[in-house]
Task: inverse folding
C-alpha cells in the first residue's frame, strides 16, 4: 500500500507522481489542513444535514494520504480503481475523497495548478476540435472492442490456424 512516509523516502518518485517535492507537499499540507477543517465544519453543520455531527463513518485514510492521492490523480489521471488499489481503499472512497478535496485545493493552488473548468453539457469538443486545439493528442490509441473467441470456438480456431 502506498503512503506518504514511504513515498517521501524517494523524492524523485514523489515529484514524478505528484509534480511537487516532499518539502512543497508539506507546505501545501499545512495550508490544506486549515482550509479542510473549515470546509468540514461547513459540510457537517449545514442545515439540511440529516445526521448529527459525528454521525457517519470516518475517513479510511488520514488527510495527508488523501491529499497525496488527489495530487496523484491530478498529475497522472489514474482511474479511481487504480488509485484505490495503490492506497488500499475502494474506488468509491477514492472518488469521494478527491471530490471533497478539490474545492479545498482550488483556491489554494489556482495560480499553480491551473486546471480548467469542465465544459457544460453540449459545450465539449469533439475529437476533430480537440486535435486542432491540441495537435500533440494526434497519436491516440484505438481502444475499440474486438470480438474474442469463446471457449467452444477455440477448437475451430486451432483447426483454422493449423
Result:
Amino acid at each position: 500500500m502506498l503512503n506518504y512516509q514511504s513515498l517521501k523516502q524517494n523524492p524523485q518518485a514523489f515529484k514524478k507522481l505528484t509534480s511537487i517535492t516532499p518539502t512543497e507537499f508539506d507546505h501545501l499540507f499545512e495550508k490544506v489542513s486549515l482550509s479542510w477543517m473549515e470546509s468540514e465544519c461547513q459540510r457537517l453543520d449545514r442545515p439540511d444535514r440529516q445526521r448529527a455531527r459525528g454521525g457517519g463513518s470516518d475517513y479510511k485514510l488520514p488527510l495527508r494520504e488523501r491529499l497525496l492521492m488527489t495530487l496523484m490523480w491530478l498529475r497522472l489521471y489514474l482511474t479511481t480503481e487504480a488509485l484505490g488499489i495503490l492506497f488500499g481503499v475502494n474506488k468509491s472512497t477514492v472518488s469521494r475523497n478527491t471530490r471533497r478535496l478539490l474545492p479545498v485545493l482550488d483556491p489554494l493552488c489556482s495560480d499553480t495548478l491551473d486546471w480548467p473548468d469542465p465544459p457544460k453539457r453540449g459545450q465539449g469538443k469533439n475529437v476533430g476540435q480537440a486535435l486542432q486545439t491540441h495537435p500533440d493528442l494526434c497519436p491516440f490509441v484505438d481502444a475499440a472492442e474486438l470480438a474474442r473467441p469463446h471457449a467452444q470456438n477455440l477448437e475451430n480456431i486451432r483447426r483454422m490456424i493449423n
User: Anything to note?
Assistant: The CA atoms of residues 131 and 137 lie 6 Å apart. Residues 4-137 form one domain. The chain has one domain: 4-137. The radius of gyration is 22 Å.
